[in-house]
């Protein structure tokens, strides 16, 4: 167990907090929509804003909320298409972290903070980003929801204690991150530059307008 005098461990969300996901998510989702239409399925016109609203949801919840009437196998195939397209874009160098996030992570590492990521993503997605961005420079772990049977973050965070001991400070851009903080009794820094709204994050202990503001609360 960590000593009481130790700094809290930081748990970052990934998409919308570290990674500017829409650069690779938008084209991947639209490609999946095209495939669905080619298969004879009706897909309503969708704005970029609506697509961005799905970031932070796990894959199952996203498809169930958007096209609940699709057969389960079709949803799974569409999800695979999105994931494969995003990973292909990442391999081509199309992925990007938010400006200033590396400098923030460097500063937090110098201060002695332990850091991990908790993301509503698939294991292969997390592994691809870990490799592409050499995340071991800053983070001890990348926890993905797929490895926890797609459980919500509020449940997963309570299972991390043996591997990644509390206390925590949670940092993220969506309500699911706030729920994880509440579930573990942790302070929460809401990231307004991501894909959540200010209303969604109104219960945050602190609000960061940009990545560089995160460290002023730590």
From TrEMBL:
GO terms for cellular component: cytosol. Keywords: Hydrolase. One of its GO terms (molecular function) is phosphoglycolate phosphatase activity. One of its GO terms (biological process) is DNA repair. InterPro entries: HAD-like_hydrolase_sf, HAD-like_sf, HAD_2, HAD_sf, PGP-like_dom2. This is HAD family hydrolase. It comes from Candidatus Scatomonas pullistercoris. The lineage of its organism: Bacteria, Bacillati, Bacillota, Clostridia, Lachnospirales.
């Amino acid at each position: 167990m960590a000593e009481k005098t130790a700094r809290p461990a930081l748990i970052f969300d990934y998409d919308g907090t570290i990674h500017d996901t829409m650069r690779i998510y938008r084209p991947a989702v639209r490609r999946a929509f095209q495939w669905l239409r080619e298969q004879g399925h009706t897909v309503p016109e969708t704005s970029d804003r609506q697509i961005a609203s799905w970031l932070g949801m796990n894959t199952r919840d996203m498809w169930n909320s958007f096209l609940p009437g699709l057969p389960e196998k079709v949803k799974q195939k569409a999800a695979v298409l999105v994931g494969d397209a995003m990973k292909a874009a990442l391999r081509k160098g199309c992925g990007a972290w938010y400006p200033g996030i590396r400098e923030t992570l460097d500063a937090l590492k110098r201060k002695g903070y332990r850091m991990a990521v908790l993301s509503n993503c698939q294991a292969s997605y997390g592994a691809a980003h870990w490799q592409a961005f050499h995340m071991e420079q800053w983070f001890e772990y990348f926890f993905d929801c797929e490895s926890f049977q797609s459980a919500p973050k509020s449940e997963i965070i309570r299972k991390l204690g043996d591997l990644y001991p509390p206390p925590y400070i949670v940092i993220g851009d969506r309500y699911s991150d706030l729920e994880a903080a509440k579930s573990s009794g942790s302070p929460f820094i809401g990231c307004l530059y991501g894909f959540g709204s200010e209303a969604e994050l109104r219960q945050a202990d602190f609000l960061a307008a940009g990545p560089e503001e995160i460290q002023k609360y730590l």
